[in-house]
Amino acid sequence: MKIDFDNPKHEKLVNDFDFLSRKKGKENAEEIIATIDILRAANSLFEVPRGYRPHPLSAEYKGCFAVDVTNTYRVIFKPNHNGDPGFRIDNFKTITSITIIEIFIDYH
């Protein structure tokens, strides 16, 4: 998938493993990077392994999706398909471009 970041600080963290490790801990940093790599490798949200539990969100994150980083923490993103007539928010196969909003959050 094509990935953009809503917050430049998140992009900086994801691209600097040492800095990410200092901020989130080495084990969490490894999990965050692995999750982002899975998203990048998939052609669409449909191809993300079910173990990462891709799922739509509601309430303040309505229109967004999340995947698991750990049992508690998630990466939150929104589809980025402005003007794409083939895009349907209810069809994971059409979600091929995303904007990451949070890289490691417990929204529960």
Tell me the span between the first and last alpha carbons.
26 Å
Number of domains: 1
Compute the gyration radius: what is it? 13 Å
The outline comes out as globular
Widest sheet: strand order?
1-5-4-3-2
Enumerate how many helices there are, as a single number. Answer: 3
Main sheet: strands, sense, barrel? 5 strands, mixed
Helix content: 25-40%
Identify the CATH class. Answer: Alpha Beta
Please report the total strand number as a whole number. Answer: 5
* Proportion of residues in β-strands: 15-25%
| Name given to the CATH architecture | 2-Layer Sandwich
Q: Helix and strand succession?
A: EHHHEEEE
Poorly predicted spans: none
CATH topology: YaeB-like fold
Describe the structure in your own words:
The protein is of the alpha+beta class and 108 residues long. The chain has one domain (2-105): RelE-like (YaeB-like fold). The protein contains three helices and five strands, in the order E-H-H-H-E-E-E-E. The chain has a five-stranded mixed β-sheet, covered by helices on one side. Strand 2 and strand 3 form a beta hairpin. Helix 2 (17-24) packs across helix 3. The longest helix is centred in the N-terminal third of the chain and has 16 residues, at 26-41.
